[in-house]
Task: inverse folding
């Protein structure tokens, strides 16, 4: 039996990226997980990523260190307060990190070219999400087109890059159902933007609200601890 194809999976240790990794594995890929220490407010999600990546089938786990606090402009990379009263419809919230998915996908593309992989998975979602512009299908299509214009492997005809977004049209509840069907243990994930020093989720930021809504719609309790 031939070895499975490698795929780079952007992996934060959160609910969506963990489900995305499980889907990549289920589709027959050998997941190469890539996580980022980018100056975010806490390291809890990275601790979860380190712990969980091999348990859900990652054959490699690469942690990239960059400092987006030098740019700022987001509640996740500066001293701006994380909103706790919901997000207004049609408004891009202050938790948006400028160009984050473009930066992350660029690193993933570079690693994929080095690995000889032509598949990249990212857990963006355009349904139950916070209005971030770099989570939309048209953005992903544009990045994929760029990837096939800007890499040696694609230009020389060795292969074509594909950006996989298996969660993009799913509700948070459907994402959870999909993950549970694949055996994902959501107790080992973290989604909160502003956890307590002890690592408890705040339950009030937009990420917590979307996560709790998803579990409620599935009809089960979220297994992570909240303050």
Result:
């Amino acid at each position: 039996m031939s070895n499975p194809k490698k795929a780079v999976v952007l992996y934060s240790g959160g609910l969506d990226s963990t489900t995305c990794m499980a889907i990549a594995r289920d589709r027959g890929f050998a997941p190469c997980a890539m996580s980022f220490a980018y100056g975010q407010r806490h390291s809890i999600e990275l601790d979860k990523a380190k712990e969980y990546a091999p348990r859900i089938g990652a054959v490699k786990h690469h942690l990239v260190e960059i400092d987006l606090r030098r740019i700022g402009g987001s509640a996740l990379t500066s001293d701006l307060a994380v909103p706790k009263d919901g997000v207004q419809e049609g408004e891009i919230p202050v938790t948006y990190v400028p160009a984050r998915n473009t930066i992350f996908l660029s690193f993933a593309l570079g690693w994929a070219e080095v690995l000889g992989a032509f598949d990249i998975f990212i857990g963006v979602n355009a349904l139950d999400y916070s209005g971030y512009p770099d989570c939309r299908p048209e953005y992903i299509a544009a990045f994929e087109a760029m990837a096939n214009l800007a890499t040696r492997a694609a230009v020389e005809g060795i292969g074509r890059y594909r950006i996989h977004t298996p969660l993009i049209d799913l509700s948070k509840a459907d994402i959870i159902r999909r993950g549970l069907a694949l055996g994902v243990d959501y107790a080992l994930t973290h989604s909160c933007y502003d956890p307590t020093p002890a690592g408890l989720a705040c339950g009030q930021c937009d990420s917590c609200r979307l996560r709790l809504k998803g579990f409620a719609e599935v009809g089960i309790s979220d297994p992570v601890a909240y303050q």
The first helix runs from residue 15 to 26.
